[in-house]
Design goal:
- The chain is an alpha+beta fold.
- It has four domains: 17-58, no CATH class; 60-285, no CATH class; 316-405, Winged helix-like DNA-binding domain superfamily/Winged helix DNA-binding domain (Arc Repressor Mutant, subunit A, Orthogonal Bundle); 437-545, no CATH class.
- The protein contains 20 helices and 16 strands.
- The longest helix is centred in the first third of the chain and has 15 residues, at 168-182.
Length: 547
């Protein structure tokens, strides 16, 4: 017993486990899920990657796992030649350049000397596409081109996808070429310069992002790396959260899951050697007058996302747009945050820190000021806090939507910025008054909602939807036709995958009624699909429109 603030408290001291006894875990749940790690202020279930922290004394990286049924015959000779050429450019006198192919693979830790089988590093770095497909069919890279700025925004517009499988040393260049050929190119010439400079995405920044993804991803996860090309940005979604904490992203030092794969990338100069790849990307993007890259690591989803905005910071159109808010005396970082929200849809404290290159206190202060000005609105709690456009910022979106959807309006920005108005007049009756939707009136059959549906915020869900779709929902009758309801459900599920309870909250209808009346029929018509098709009763099941 010890006194504390005039009261007696019981103090229990638990000694730390001996290193050889770690990790402690719940026996029924087993490892890794039954063990926990303290990350920030949270206790999170461990993953297979966390187990390496406790068992690294075994000295074996996961990419040393032997792939049964493979041999040196599964090696792509072009990939080996590519390695030799790259290595020679870095160090012409490197001893391994004189080795035979088999000796070289052994030296690089890519070939098991006992049975002559390739390990995971050897298969991924140098293996033929057929060998990779035979052994790990989902370990590939998908390059996806999506029209617009939102995932599957238009169900009538199919995205284009290129699936790439093969040796990593060859695929790096294929990916860079494919993406670079899609990127817009601009030129900038100062009056004293003879030669113009390109103002597009720096090729070195793109290379660093791709190499980091291939080098640091978790190959325990049997799913592809996705590189998604939107109109305004590139997102690289990689299986495996960052082994470095979010606060240390961009700081010197590297932690890698695949030490042998990383070694090959490093000694060929394809990757930074001091764990400074993120900082290098940031420098290259800023030098090109582009918005800095942002990074998002999620232990819950076991994913790491790199985001490269194809947006020149504070160009002429931005300055015109930002003049609407000049009375708020925003600093450059806050202006950039508004542009980021306009382009991507949301921002959190970590992303703001990465873009502004500031600490958490400065980021919190700046974001709080934007909230007080009604430019941003806070969502979520604790670590899951993020910000979306507030009412004042949304008014500019509504205006832009009218400009895009009405032929009587010009799509080009005016040379004189318009004053922000809370009222809108438009010659189009179809969209009249959509900007002042009363979310409380979009109820219909709210009394039939499930408990889970009532936990969602209807206003927040509807605000995710395009203005025109909000108007359609607002005009729904209590007994609407099946055709119209199915059309609206498909439009909603084309924005992103929605849970049944979310749809019930938006449409004001019970889960069972929705499932029986509409969802089952749409799936049978092959217009709708489950997000988790292999497990229909998945706890996070959701619906998305088919492409």
């Amino acid at each position: 017993m010890e006194p504390l603030q005039g009261k007696s408290v019981i103090v229990v001291r638990v000694k730390e486990l001996d290193y050889l006894q770690k990790p402690a875990f719940f026996k029924k749940q087993g490892l890794p899920f039954g063990a926990f790690r303290r990350i920030g202020s949270s206790d999170l279930h461990c993953t297979e990657d966390d187990m390496q922290v406790f068992y690294n004394n075994l000295g074996k990286s996961y990419d040393q796992t032997v792939v049964a049924g493979t041999s040196i015959k599964d090696i792509d000779s072009v990939a080996l030649s590519r390695y030799r050429k790259l290595r020679e450019n870095v160090l012409p006198t490197a001893e391994e350049l004189s080795y035979s192919d088999e000796e070289l693979l052994i030296a690089l830790g890519c070939l098991n000397t006992d049975k002559g089988e390739l390990n995971l590093a050897g298969l991924l770095l140098f293996g033929t596409p057929s060998a990779q497909r035979r052994t790990f069919p989902m370990l590939r890279v998908d390059y996806i081109r999506v029209p617009g700025n939102v995932w599957v925004q238009d169900p009538e517009s199919r995205f284009n996808s290129i699936d790439m499988r093969g040796p990593l040393l060859v695929n790096v260049y294929k990916l860079i070429d494919a993406i670079n050929s899609d990127l817009p190119k601009g030129f900038l010439m100062d009056k004293d310069q003879v030669q113009a400079q390109t103002t597009g995405l720096p090729i070195l920044a793109l290379r660093e992002a791709i190499v980091n993804a291939l080098m640091h991803r978790s190959y325990r996860e049997h799913k592809p790396t996705q590189i998604i090309r939107y109109d305004n940005r590139i997102e690289i979604i990689n299986p495996g959260f960052s082994l470095k904490s979010e606060d240390k992203l961009g700081s010197p030092g590297s932690e890698t899951r695949n030490s042998f794969i990383a070694a090959v990338f490093h000694e060929t100069n394809l990757a930074e050697t001091k764990g400074s790849g993120i900082r290098a990307m940031r420098r290259l993007m800023i030098d090109a007058k582009l918005a800095p890259p942002t990074f998002e690591s999620s232990r819950e989803d076991n994913e790491f996302t790199t985001r490269l905005l194809l947006h020149h910071f504070l160009d002429k159109k931005d300055l015109i747009w930002l003049k609407r808010f000049e009375t708020y005396n925003l600093n450059d970082s806050q202006k950039q945050a508004l542009i980021f929200v306009r382009e991507v849809g949301a921002i959190d404290n970590l992303t703001y820190r990465q873009m502004a290159d500031c600490d958490a206190i400065r980021a919190t202060t700046d974001l709080r000021a934007l909230r007080k000005s009604n430019l941003l609105v806070l969502f979520g709690k604790g670590k899951g806090t993020y910000y979306k456009a507030g009412d004042l910022l949304n008014e500019t979106y509504i205006e832009n939507d009218f400009l895009r959807t009405n032929s009587n309006y010009s799509t080009e920005p005016s040379t004189e910025p318009k004053n922000v108005s809370t009222e809108h007049k438009s010659p189009s009756t179809e969209v009249e008054n959509i900007n002042v939707v009363d979310y409380q009136q979009i109820q219909i059959l709210d009394e039939g909602l499930s408990t889970e549906a009532r936990e969602f915020n209807k206003k927040e869900l509807i605000e995710e939807l395009p203005i025109r779709l909000q108007g359609k929902i607002y005009k729904l009758k209590e007994r609407e036709s099946t055709e119209i309801m199915e059309e609206i459900i498909l439009e909603i599920c084309s924005i992103r995958p929605f849970k049944l309870a979310e749809l019930g909250c938006i449409l004001g209808k019970g889960d069972n009624y929705l499932s029986r009346k509409y969802m089952k029929s749409l799936i049978e018509k092959d217009k709708l699909k489950f997000l988790h098709s292999d497990m229909v009763n998945h706890p996070s099941q959701a619906y998305q429109s088919k492409q």
